[in-house]
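Worked example

This section walks through a single chain of length 184. The input is the sequence exactly as stored; nothing has been trimmed or padded.
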Amino acid sequence: MIRAFIALPLPEAVRSALVLLQHQLPVPRRVEPEAMHLTLLFLGELPHPELEAVHHALDELRAPGFDLQLQGLGLFGGARPRNLHAGVSPQPALDHLQAKVAQAVRGTGLRVARHRFVPHVTLARFTPEQIEDRPRLERAVAGAALFRSEPFAVRGFGLYRSTLRRDGAVYDLLADYALDPPPG
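Given that input, the structure is written out below as tokens.
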């Protein structure tokens, strides 16, 4: 069984900007720069034949490339936040790509959770108990609301293996897939 997901890699310059932002925020368990990505679809634990079928379906997928920009910060978890993330400026081409990825995976016979796609890049994970000063964290997140990365080109996506370890997950690229040249 292989724990896998489909994601967009981030350019080095964007990861560097996110690292600078991380160090301004009062959070434990920061995500390492090499682990930063934008998940299109989490697949969970798959046997090798199913993962191979997903690979072939993704290899056939066609969608145009586009530009993307990260924007603002947010917390997931409501009254008990567990995740700090950078948001994404609205981009219909990203939503289109994510829908095509989900459709391709469903076409292999795998069940895909049907929930609203909320594009983001996780910067830190924590339990509510690890946050010593929640109002301070919320002020820091609000203070970074104007954060914007440089726009960057999305020209492909990848299929990744996730190996869970005590000190956090390690991600390995299994295959990458090119997008078509952007229109125009």
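What to look for: The radius of gyration is 17 Å.
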